[in-house]
Model the fold of this input.
Amino acid sequence: MLCERCGQRPATMHLTEISNGQKNDTHLCEVCAREIQPQGFGFVPQIHLHNFLASLLNHGMGEDKSYKTETTGKKCEKCGVFEGQIAKQGLMGCGDCYPFFEERLLPLLRRIHGSTRHTGKVPARTGGRARLAKEINKLKNNLKEVVSREDFEQAAQLRDQIHQLEKYMAEGSEG
Amino acid sequence: MPLKKTVNSSYSRWMDADGPEADIVISSRVRVARNLAGKPFPHLSNNEKAEDIIRAVRLAVEDKELAKQVGALEISLLSELSPVERQILVDKHLISPDLLSSFEWKAVVLRDDEVISIMVNEEDHLRIQCLLPGLQLKEAWELINQVDDGLEKTLDYAFSEKLGYLTACPTNVGTGMRASVMLHLPGLGLTKQLSGVLNAINKVGLTVRGLFGEGTEALGDMFQISNQITLGQSEEEIIDNLVAVAKQIIAQEQAARRALYNGRREVFEDRIYRAYGTLKYAHILTFEEAMRLFSDLRLGIEMGLVSGIPAKLLNELMVKIRPAFLVKLAGQDMTAQQRDIFRAEMIRKEFEGS
Ligand SMILES: [Zn+2]
Ligand SMILES: [Zn+2]
Done:
């Protein structure tokens, strides 16, 4: 058997990966095994992954519509990458490809991650939901304090602000 | 110049073997993928665009405030190094082998102690890594988080409220985070429990990896566990999950080691001291044999049976006995046979007086 990475030398080792109860063996020659070195943890090139993605994307298109060439399908307006290219390489062209190819991508993301919604870190500059929620909380605390002082004019202002932010946040979660 | 220092020394902070659970967990690693908004991902890049990215990252890492918070970071082009020196960065786990192809477009950022490294223009524009000894995933994430916050003051990341950090490969989208621990599991191997334990992990979203030779023994008894899912879980959840599973495996490995020691102590000790003796006196050692002997000896050190050799030295030797560093030390190219002789000689020297 030839090495699955270089396709040139005979495979003498195998890299075993177990995830989600699925075992996957990659047969490697000594040179490639040393190069990818699992001691380098996490740097194992995802040999199967790009092929896997490509096949998923292709599958979504159905038999007759499958990507025969790299220039089939829609084209990202920003980076100019074609759907066919993405399917072949398993890589997106730019950040704008995500909303652009969203329809095709969401079922794929669900299959890979079991989810289609980010719940982690939000960059400060983006002013994301987490920060929005924090801001709303802060305003609500202010409101309590202002009400207890019977400053109703200020309270009305704060209440409007809170409503506005909450509306903005609700819209964001649908989009 | 830190980069020259890095490639001239086989030592790196993660080798210190001094973190929590260091008798089983060699090291913890967290890396996050980040991309710049409005720029094509590196695989679509050309020389000019790649230089733009490097220029932007340079500006971001040379920020004085960032240096104050996380220590000075220095960016270097990979083209400043020889091929052997670039391979040494891979062997020290500071960059991935993927950064070596079309290296003219790529750069690496390092902190002096090599705990933080950033690959520029790999699959994503930035891959920020933190590498620490022992089980320190939380600490590694906290540090990355700080670096990331600092960089973000200069760089505008590709991010969507819905899908999180946007990455070249959809398998990384969301947190863009890959966390992993390197475990030394000889006890489970010797007691034939390995496949049982690893198959039982089977927790959704985690992956276990090991490299095996012709036999059933994993090379160096090293295993890596990492998260697979990056979307729908927060960074903290991913890490908590991984730490919980790592702790389970650690407990099982400890039990296996105790059972071996209590059950057939002479056989167990014989194995360890044979490895010690061979490493100390052999004149020809292949990489694979040395790795196998290191594993046995490491087990003896971790269990407190061998005291003359620190685990730290074995970690460093795992890098030093690889072809790239041997060539660097010898100052010339060598055949495989010459390397095996040179490797044994170097190990003998390191073990002298132990
Ligand atoms: Zn190969
Ligand atoms: Zn695009």
About this structure: The mean pLDDT of chain B is 92. Chain B is about 45% helix and 20% strand. Chain B has two domains: 3-256, 265-350. The first strand of chain B starts at residue 25 and ends at 34.
